[in-house]
Amino acid sequence: MQKIIEFKKQRGFFRGGIDIDALNERIYQLNQDGWKVINVSASTGLYGQVYSYILLIENEEL
Predict the structure, then answer these.
(1) Of 10, 15, 42, 62, whose Cβ has the fewest other Cβ atoms within 10 Å?
(2) Around Cβ 35, how many Cβ atoms within 10 Å?
(3) Given pLDDT bands bounded at 50, 70 and 90, which one contains residue 10?
(4) Residue 18's pLDDT is what?
(5) What are the CA-CA distances from residue 15 to residues 26, 61, 62 (Å)?
(6) 3-state DSSP call for residue 24?
(7) Segments of 1-62 assigned E as strands
């Protein structure tokens, strides 16, 4: 089975941007739960700022 999830956790108001450490932790948790990350894509705004990441994940369940 495959799923698409969106990761949007921000670092904070003054620091801005996506929290990459939290994204890495989320990917680690997904791997521990049996999910395999296939693809990670950035979603950008009008001026190129990244506001989320889209993850394609899959596992062997039917």
Answers:
(1) 62
(2) 20
(3) confident
(4) 84
(5) 20, 39, 41
(6) helix
(7) 2-7, 36-44, 50-58
